[in-house]
Amino acid sequence: MIPYGRQDITQEDRDAVLAVLDSDFLTQGPALPAFEAAVREVTGAAHAFAVNSATSALHIAYLALDLGPGDVLWTSPNTFLATSNAALFCGASVDFVDIDPDTLNLSVEALAKKLAETRAAGGRLPKIVVPVHFGGEPCDMAAIAALAREYGFAVVEDASHAIGASYGNHRVGACAHSDMTVFSFHPVKIVTTGEGGAVTTNRADLADRLGLLRSHGMTRDERLMRGRSAGGWYYEQVTLGFNYRMTDIQAALGTSQMKRLDDYIAGRETRALLYDEAFAGTDIGTQRRSADARSALHLYVLRWPKDAALSRREAYDRMRAADIGVNLHYIPVYLQPYYADLGFRPGLCPAAEAYHDQAITIPLHPRLTRNDQDYVIETVRKLAKSNS
Ligand SMILES: *Cc1c(COP(=O)(O)O)cnc(C)c1O
Question: What is the pTM of this model?
Answer without folding.
Answer: 0.98
